[in-house]
Amino acid sequence: MRTTTTEPVGVEVTDLDLREVSDAEVEQLRLLLAERGVAVFPGQDVDDEAFVAFLRRFGDLAFTVGETPVEGCPELNLISNVGRTTPPRSQFHVDSSYLRVPPAYTALRTVTIPDEGGETLFTNQYLAHDTLPADLREHLEGRRITHVVTGLDLDDDEETQAQHPVFRPHPVTGRPALYLSTAARCASISGMDEAETQAVVARLLEHSTRPENTLRHAWSSGDVVMWDNAVVMHRADHSGVVGDRVMHRGMVAGHEAEAGSGEDHPGW
Q1: What span, in angstroms and rounded, lies between the C-alpha atoms of 206 and 81?
Q2: Count of structural domains, the chain
Q3: What's the confidence (pLDDT) of residue 260?
Q4: Is residue 147 within 8 Å of 160, Cβ to Cβ?
Q5: Which of 246, 229, 215 is nearest to 118 (CA)?
């Protein structure tokens, strides 16, 4: 397994067949994801069965209730622009942050790549935290954001909101990352009224998604990309897409906070 770091976030992993990954390599990848946020595996020849088997090496799988499953493989969900008259909309976000224990990892495998466009963008939320102005970081220290669900019709017994620290320590590295999602999903910040919440969230999103803090991944046939939801935000760029863009997405469930971590760590 060879690795090449990309800036400002991510790592490309080559000389690795995802169908034949050892336990030691899984642990190495887990550490790489915790440090670098995103792992790109080019040139993979994996079908849905092999993709699911690879993800299960990292833990139990998760599925977002209300989204479209892949036919014949309900563990995965379908990401597609086929048959749409208008492009999908995507903003920078973290998957299912409205859950008390959000998914630890998300991964996409290419099925059909468009002739043009369709890149996925990732932000480095470690760096976003570290480069915040000192006065803003001090103002936000110890506060929590209430994340709410948007765009899904959920049953009454489903989770629809959860609180997470603004500065969320990573369970592996211990490093704090600026934990955000779309503005609509960041409903409130503890100790702030609605107006201040909206202004601060807008400022944090602008800061996090600066070009110098963003990796733009252009998809190639055979790509598998996996990311750590505690380290990065992501969004698909649907502008200027020419042709069909079809991906299959899998998620690995998060795990409960380690014993003794306290209320500031409600789950990972």
Answers
A1: 27
A2: 1
A3: 29
A4: no
A5: 246
